[in-house]
Amino acid sequence: MLISLVVPVYNEGPRIARHLQSILTAAHTEDCELELLAVDDGSNDESASEIQRLVEVDGRVRLLSLTRNFGKEAAIYAGLEHARGEAVVVLDADLQHPPALIPEMIRAWRAGEHIVEAVKRERNDPSRLDSLFARAFYSLYRRMSGFDIAGHSDFKLLDRQVVDIYLQLPERYRFFRGLVNWTGISGRVLHFDVEPRPGSRSRWSKLGLMRYAVNNVTAFSTIPLAVVAWLGCLTLAFGVVVALITVLQKLTGQAQAGFTTVNILLILLGGSIMTSLGIMGHYIGKIYVEIKSRPVYIVKLTDRKRP
Questions:
Q1: By CB count within 10 A, which of 38, 120, 187, 189 is most buried?
Q2: What is the DSSP letter of 15?
């Protein structure tokens, strides 16, 4: 019985080989074979070469190199598409997802679970601002999509049937945690404590996290488009009230000289229109990306002799 471990890798440096060996050691079980598929997501350091050296000495390790940095979601998709196991475990390369939990995940799978999800007991964020941002995102995501993924991570075991279902989903932009939850397939939850990040800080910037959050929320909800309609209705209602007051003041001779009312209306209308266009433009941009149907990732070409 083969279990695949999919590990997205991006700029992990010389420590990556040691981390992968630690994952294999912790995941070892007597009655299962392991393959570890390291997906190098366009690293610009020595990560790929370090993994390749490990491949040459450990037959359980495979390297899949992408031509550039397509993002973690694409790397996970590539790993799932190339994994050969009857079950697939996805986890991070920096050991923040404790690999010692993998044998218990495998036991739960063998007991009949199709999905085994590792959920954080506490986020262990490096700052109060990061914690506040994360809570706000999960709250907004739950309210807009109807799915609660607070504390969930990409650390999951998926049965081969679930992997096949995930790969059949047609969208180009993917949110792994959200899509697995969206399938509605029940599973078991295991809790874990987040390990300290060894040797480096998170490479996610605040702007990058904000963009990631907006994309994930809008990928599962059209509520922002409904907000546009409500915003238009409220603006129209306010405009009608202001117009009635202006007409009444004119008829009673109380109208004041100046452009205060006009300025207020222009600011409200202009702000509402621009906000609405921005929201609709975001969705149109996502439609544009989906319609192009470009591949989610591209694997590096292998060297070969030409005749």
A1: 38
A2: G
Helices (H), 40-159: 47-57, 72-82, 102-110, 128-145
Containing structural domain, residue 174: 2-220
Which long-range CB contacts under 8 A does 19-23 form with residues at least 24 apart? 19/93, 19/94, 19/95, 20/51, 20/54, 20/61, 20/93, 21/54, 21/58, 22/95, 22/99, 23/91, 23/95, 23/99, 23/102
Residues 64 and 166 in one domain: yes
Q: How far apart are CA 202 and CA 70, in angstroms?
A: 18
Average pLDDT of every residue of the chain: 81
The residue type found at 299 is: V
Residue 54 lies in a domain: yes
The identity of residue 60, as a single letter, is R
**What's the pTM?**
0.74
Tens-place pLDDT, residues 276-299: 777 777 777 777 667 767 677 778
Q: Which tokens belong to 47?
A: 């990560």
Q: Phi and psi at residue 12, in whole multiples of 5°?
A: -90, -10
